Amino acid sequence: MARLPAPLHARLEDAARSYFDAPGLALDFSKPSGAPALFAPTSLAWRVMKNPVALTIGGLAAVILELAEPRVRTGVWEHTTFRTDPVARMKRTGMAAMVTVYGPAEQARAMIAGIVRAHGRVEGVTPAGVPYRASDEELLNWVNATAGYGFFEAYHRFVRPLTPREMDAVYEEGHEAAALYGAHGAPRSAAEMQKLFAAMRSKLEPSQIVFDFLDIVRTAQILPSRALQRLMVRAAVELQPPWVRAILRLDERHGLRPGGATALRALGAASDRIVLESAPPAQACLRMGLPADYLYRG
Length: 298
What we know:
Elements: H1 6-19, H2 44-48, H3 52-68, H4 70-79, H5 86-102, H6 105-120, E1 123-125, E2 131-133, H7 137-158, H8 164-173, H9 175-180, H10 190-200, H11 208-219, H12 226-238, H13 242-248, H14 260-271, H15 280-287
Antiparallel strand pairs: 1-2
Helix pairs in contact: 3-7, 3-11, 3-12, 5-6, 11-12
């Protein structure tokens, strides 16, 4: 566990409280005492999802992949507040991930049911004339899978390398939660993720919206450091499989520059040992009768 100077630690605690104060999704993760989550405290998911570097980079990488699919892209761009209030949108999405992984299972299921109901009302037609519904299982599988890919790959590359067995395990752990979202065909291993990539490859398309999204997240006030924020956006592009970058026309100008990966790996490793007691991972540990630093020990 890393120890920071008290003023800096206090600033980080304040930032965590602010980020997870998402409108409509406020939750005290420390209660009720002993209430299990959908994921066990011993799961890899609890360790991966506690890391703010992996969460930020992985979340951005997932959105890039989502926007590569034209039906998902149209739904996100036309039925969410990403263009008008990206920070609030990202807070809600991040909080939903925290509730899914760390929240009491009863409350997580209730939240997911609400999201599923909202998805049931989202439908439309892409600019190319293709009809879509957010409740389409193929699209749900893609959104769920790309989120997992983003978080797991970001942790693997910028925090701690996961062994092949660990990578398969962390995909498998999410099966129950994915099914609650309606993603019954979500990958249960790294190999299944690659199969999904192969199945979706012909359906992905370039779009100016991807570049608009990158412009938005470079400039929106998401992190206290704008330079770090831009670096993480580049890292999210770097996480894309090379063939996805080719389809989206994200050339080397959009990826990491020399030294960027090294800096992020140092930050990722350090942040994996910093306990933020106001954040959901530590609060969930307390709820389960574990020390707040349970997930942060070597």
